[in-house]
């Protein structure tokens, strides 16, 4: 079975982990500092704080911008991992769900409608599957209405919009470094911003001092692994993009199959290679039977998952019946890519 995701660690990660074990300095050390500095430099952003997960990053980001009661409304897209809406609920705010468009990111026309109707305090555009949302339009809408833009960049390490990296496109951003991500530590997250006032509030939540705080640190092991994964990120993203090019060429004429699209001015880093087909469930079952680790992303929408207030999320609801993913991790060998291609072709033709 070719798995849907497989982290790729080398000698650098292994040597660093062994070095940390021998040093006895397993938390709050040089590797955590190095990773924070290098990640901020990579994004060309002023401030970076590491935390224990992407969910924690979203939660702290929301608390830092003042989300703490049900009057604080936050707009989120209908399709994302559940942490996007859960962080709003845990922070004490009220999530408002809007539909997505063909890019699988926030529908900006619905965003305009939701802003007028609900007067939100914040908007969370999710750069889903590795492609950024339409950030010019989202920022324009939010700036005109004094709304804070919090990017959920958990799936978009290295993705760009008009040359700027995801994470440096709004007021602040949250990242995840979960085992499946393009930049993987096993577990981990980060909050980044260029706003020193927001940075101070983030620090107050996670740095102990003359105020209550939370311990959400990563260990030196995670930071050391993350440091080397960051060094390999651009090369690994290019490998993902090359695999996506092969898939796009090979699958373009398969009946009923809708391929992912890279939009103008955006660089897709293919955290997920998302396909659509009306007979999705049968295709996924047969791919797995034939040794290809296909998976559904996602079989729920956030409005239905948490019974949240929403606008009409018709397109996202349709996707829950059609969308699925196939392996696209950088360590895939040529023969594995060939096998995936031939198996997808065979299965899609069989069910069509």
Automatic annotation (TrEMBL):
Keywords: Pyridoxal phosphate. The keyword Nucleotidyltransferase does not apply. This is dTDP-4-amino-4,6-dideoxygalactose transaminase. One of its GO terms (molecular function) is pyridoxal phosphate binding. It comes from Hydrogenothermus marinus. SUPFAM superfamilies: PLP-dependent transferases. The active site is at 181 (proton acceptor). It comes from the Bacteria. CDD domains: AHBA_syn. One of its GO terms (biological process) is polysaccharide biosynthetic process. InterPro entries: DegT/StrS_aminotransferase (IPR000653), PyrdxlP-dep_Trfase (IPR015424), PyrdxlP-dep_Trfase_major (IPR015421), PyrdxlP-dep_Trfase_small (IPR015422). Belongs to the DegT/DnrJ/EryC1 family. The modification N6-(pyridoxal phosphate)lysine is found at residue 181.
